[in-house]
Amino acid sequence: FDIWQRGTSGFTSNQSYSADRWFTFSSTTYNIAQETSVVPTGATNSLRVTITGAGGYANLQYAMEQSEVEKLAGQTVTFSVYLRANATYAGGSFNMSIQSNTTGNTQTGGTWTTVSGALTTHTPSTSAFTRVSVTGTVPTNAKGLAFYIGQNVGLSSGAIYYVALAKIE
């Protein structure tokens, strides 16, 4: 989250891009902004998601371009990020997964399905960043590959979560 070519704050629209091509799906109002003070060691920035409505979510997904996905067909990939939340996050957990699509690489086109075995659940710490990772094998017929971070429960207004040092290996 070092390159914020679309600005560093004010991302509030459902199904829209924010930092570094991360796409947001939401069921409530939210705000995404660049965070410079709550970051893990080794990071310059993190992505801060603040829930401003009540009882909803703001999930993130990053989709790779088809030309890059085709190079990974049949390969094992690991997706990792560092996650943290504030006290208002109130014990909610994240699902983190690798998704594939056989019809294209657009965020909203085709059908995204979880790559076999590439799903984990994590409850974030409110005092420190924790590295979370998931690994799976890219299907040989994949045209799209996406990396997903989403909440399992509706969040209260004022809930904040931070994402940093996203990595695909």
Please tell me about this protein's structure.
The structure is a single chain. The protein is mainly beta and 169 residues long. The chain has one helix at residues 66-71; strands spanning 16-17, 23-26, 30-35, 46-51, 58-64, 76-85, 94-101, 113-122, 130-137, 144-151, 160-168. It has a six-stranded antiparallel beta sheet with strand order 1-2-5-10-7-8. Strand 1 and strand 2 form a beta hairpin. The longest helix has 6 residues, at 66-71. The mean pLDDT is 88.
Average pLDDT metric: 88
List the secondary-structure elements in sequence, H or E: EEEEEHEEEEEE
Strand composition percent: over 45%
Number of strands: 11
- The side-by-side strand order for the widest beta sheet comes to 1-2-5-10-7-8
Spatial gap, N to C terminus: 16 Å
Largest sheet: 6 strands, antiparallel
Unreliable segments of 5+ consecutive residues: none
Task: Name the structural class.
Answer: mainly beta
The count of helical stretches stands at 1
